[in-house]
Amino acid sequence: MTQRAALLIGVLTHTEKEWQECDKFTSKLHHYPEGLREDFLSKCRKGDFDGVYAMYRSNDSNSITGNFNEELLDALPKSLKFICHNGAGYDNIDIPACTKRGISVSSTPIAVNNATADVALLLMLGALRNVTQAFQAVRQGKWRGNFSLGHDPKDKVLGILGMGGIGSAVAHRAKAFGMKIQYHNRHQLPASEEEGAKYVSFDELLKTSDVLSLNLALNPSTRHIIAKPQFDQMKDGIIIVNTARGPIMDEAALVDALKSGKVWTAGLDVFEEEPKIHPGLLEAENVVLLPHIGTATVETQRDMEQLVLDNLKSAIKEDKLITQVPEQKK
Ligand SMILES: *[C@@H]1O[C@H](CO)[C@@H](O)[C@H](O)[C@H]1NC(C)=O
Ligand SMILES: *[C@@H]1O[C@H](CO)[C@@H](O)[C@H](O)[C@H]1NC(C)=O
Ligand SMILES: *[C@@H]1O[C@H](CO)[C@@H](O)[C@H](O)[C@H]1NC(C)=O
Ligand SMILES: *[C@@H]1O[C@H](CO)[C@@H](O)[C@H](O)[C@H]1NC(C)=O
């Protein structure tokens, strides 16, 4: 155990002291705070990180190293057995390639659920109440501007696509607004976890929801799961809320559906090619847009950093992760 080193990529904001304290159970703490992929790869290849057993991949590390694909995994020290990633989504890590190399990966589910669900509700209510137009008018000194009435959430059918921790937290909150909630998921949940929501097929969800909230992970099978054929099946005037990942939905098809009136409005925290946003969305004056801030609260960011450290500690001391990604759990 004494020969197990740890590497931090990126910087910590809330748990710097806790990271330093990891020296009690590691042989060495390496830190790569910033840099470029080529530089990082060359340091790996020179052996600078040899002996690293577990890695902390911070929330901003992807902008430093780029995706953890085959090329990068090949360059990592052979001693590396654990990658502890800060984020609920880990589409920028090639999980099958990690598994093949005997590397276990953890993410930070649960910690993000409430904050992300809060933003889903914020976007949904903002869309229902046409808040963008009102926000703009009041700041331009036009008071209500060209005001038109919004809609109540009460008695609307909320469809949740992906009923994991975030989806359930959305359902929990939406209940308080008197919405009728239905969901589709790979598997129906036990009744105790359904939050009173009704399980329906994917087609049924598309055909009967007044508001559709996307709460599923991005992977090859969910990329563009919402595209033209799915919009065609939806009720006219549906509201779409996406706090999951941009590429789950075909953004150009959404713009077409907004133009045709098929989709009345949308509340979006994520986009296909962040930070780029389709000009058609910027032009649609009733669409509510946020720059991917779902988990951006002090409390949640601290909880996420701490959970990554807890995983790192468990990896080094006990050879196991607390929140290993489900694809690796057989
Ligand atoms: C990472 O978290 C810190 C706060 O904890 C925040 O300031 C920063 O914007 C986050 N970076 C990304 C890429 O999410
Ligand atoms: C999320 O909020 C619920 C209350 O709505 C609380 O019981 C739960 O502990 C919170 N989860 C996390 C991970 O903070
Ligand atoms: C105000 O909004 C209505 C309905 O959306 C629209 O028909 C009308 O042209 C708008 N008026 C102005 C001055 O923008
Ligand atoms: C929302 O605002 C847009 C842009 O001003 C307007 O066209 C639309 O009629 C409004 N709808 C409601 C229900 O407020």
Task: Please describe the topology of this protein.
Elements: E1 5-9, H1 16-20, E2 29-32, H2 37-46, E3 52-57, H3 62-65, H4 70-75, E4 82-85, H5 95-100, E5 104-106, H6 113-128, H7 131-139, E6 157-161, H8 165-175, E7 180-184, E8 198-199, H9 202-208, E9 211-214, H10 228-233, E10 238-242, H11 251-260, E11 263-268, H12 279-283, E12 288-289, H13 298-318
The structure holds 2-acetamido-2-deoxy-beta-D-glucopyranose (4 copies).
Give me the secondary-structure category: alpha/beta
The CATH architecture of the largest domain can be named as 3-Layer(aba) Sandwich
Count of strand segments: 12
Bound molecules: 2-acetamido-2-deoxy-beta-D-glucopyranose
For this structure, the CATH topology of the largest domain is Rossmann fold
InterPro entries: D-isomer_2-hydroxyacid_DH, D-isomer_2_OHA_DH_cat_dom, D-isomer_DH_CS, D-isomer_DH_CS1, D-isomer_DH_NAD-bd, NAD(P)-bd_dom_sf
GO molecular function: glyoxylate reductase (NADPH) activity; hydroxypyruvate reductase [NAD(P)H] activity; NAD binding
Protein name: D-isomer specific 2-hydroxyacid dehydrogenase
Family: Belongs to the D-isomer specific 2-hydroxyacid dehydrogenase family.
What this model shows, in words?
With about 325 residues, the protein is of the alpha/beta class. It folds into two domains: about 140 residues, Rossmann fold (3-Layer(aba) Sandwich); about 180 residues, NAD(P)-binding Rossmann-like Domain (Rossmann fold, 3-Layer(aba) Sandwich). Helix content is about 35%, strand content about 15%. The chain contains 13 helices and twelve strands. A seven-stranded parallel β-sheet has the order 8-7-6-9-10-11-12, with helices on both faces. The chain has a five-stranded parallel β-sheet with strand order 2-1-3-4-5. Bound molecules: 2-acetamido-2-deoxy-beta-D-glucopyranose (4 copies). The site of one 2-acetamido-2-deoxy-beta-D-glucopyranose has 2 residues, from loops. GO terms for molecular function: glyoxylate reductase (NADPH) activity; hydroxypyruvate reductase [NAD(P)H] activity; NAD binding. InterPro entries: D-isomer_2-hydroxyacid_DH (IPR050223), D-isomer_2_OHA_DH_cat_dom (IPR006139), D-isomer_DH_CS (IPR029753), D-isomer_DH_CS1 (IPR029752), D-isomer_DH_NAD-bd (IPR006140), NAD(P)-bd_dom_sf (IPR036291). Keywords: NAD, Oxidoreductase.
